[in-house]
Amino acid sequence: MSQPPAQPGMAWASLALGLLLMFGITAYPRALVDAAGKPDHIAATLAAWAMAAGIVRGVGFVPRNGLLRIALSGWSSALACGLALLRLYLVRG
What is the C-alpha to C-alpha distance for residues 50 and 53, in angstroms, rounded to an integer? Predict the structure, then answer.
């Protein structure tokens, strides 16, 4: 008799990052603008990816599809957040 696969638990760090981004961007959307005051769409896309991946993985959902599992992992959430911060740092000069 085989054991059923273990259910993934909540990932608190990923959930915290996702919620922090969700509330932070909602409260202060000007954080995602460039030096000229125009929206930085690349940084916004990366921040949205980090937020979505953090919340999805944070609540314990792990997709079966391999590509989605990678795109919505805790590591990809951290990577996307880091890339968004790097993009904003480089754009603002």
Answer: 5
